[in-house]
Specification:
Layout (H helix, E strand, L loop, with lengths): L11 H24 L3 E3 L8 E3 L1 H10 L3 H22 L8 H27 L25 H9 L2 H28 L7 H27 L25
Antiparallel strand pairs: 1-2
Helix pairs in contact: 3-4, 3-6, 5-6, 6-7
């Protein structure tokens, strides 16, 4: 009779022990590494970063927005509103479809962004400026592309290609001013940490930079052809002639 020899089965404790040892070996080297992690606050472009204590990091995370963020939003509301005033002049002073389309884009985007900025400030208990109060602009941004009262009056009186040229020149400068305001905000330590605000700021920068490119191309095509400003009509349409006698 042949006897079969069987291998003894390891006890549950013997099976668990290697797993515990493996886990201990994996965790042990990691703990000191975690304890050495530093919290770094990136500096503005060209500036050095600095280490933050745990309390400082918690304070920044809790606040989510800074005084510079608030000032930016309060300044940008009347800034955007002036763009709406300029765009509102286009319909009755030009027959350029391209310029009319540009004014429509500006009107839609700037109006929506004003609404967002008003809601953002109100939700945080901050002062929401009157869009009509251009004098409320902060001194450091007073000339950030804003057209003067005299320039606005001249634009309102211009017509045809003179209007097209003046509008594009003023609006390009106006949009460039908005880009400067964004640049100034991002230079401030602790600004734009609010994810919603950061996304908004990036959208403003990207959209207005793209609009500047389109308007610059349009400005290059604005000439002195008198046909550009002809008024429509069935029996009383505007006329123009060159090198011929009517």
């Amino acid at each position: 009779m042949t006897r079969l020899r069987t291998r003894p089965t390891a006890s549950p404790r013997m099976r668990v022990l290697p797993s515990c040892l493996l886990a201990a070996l994996l965790v042990a080297p990691v703990a000191p590494a975690l304890a050495q992690v530093s919290i770094v606050n990136p500096g503005a472009p060209g500036k050095e970063s600095r280490k933050l204590s745990a309390d400082e990091a918690v304070k920044i995370a809790a606040s989510r927005y800074s005084a510079a963020d608030v000032q930016f939003m309060q300044d940008m509301i009347p800034h955007h509103h002036q763009a709406l005033e300029m765009a509102a002049l286009v319909g009755k002073r030009t027959n350029s479809p391209t310029l009319i389309d540009a004014a429509g884009r500006i009107e839609a985007s700037q109006r929506d962004e004003i609404g967002f900025m008003q809601q953002w400030l109100a939700a945080r208990g901050e002062t929401v400026p009157d869009p009509l109060a251009h004098a409320a602009m902060h001194a450091s941004h007073q000339m950030a592309g804003m057209a003067s009262p005299a320039e606005m009056a001249a634009l309102a009186k211009a017509e045809s290609t003179d209007f097209d040229r003046t509008f594009l020149q003023l609006m390009i400068r106006h949009h460039a001013g908005a880009l400067k305001m964004v640049e100034d905000l991002l230079k401030q330590r602790g600004s734009a940490y609010d994810p919603t605000l950061l996304e908004f700021v990036n959208d403003v920068s990207n959209d207005q930079a793209a609009e500047i490119e389109r308007m610059t191309a349009m400005l290059a095509t604005v000439g002195s052809d008198p046909r550009t400003g002809l008024s429509p009509g069935f029996r009383d349409a505007g006329t123009a002639i060159a090198n011929l006698r009517l």
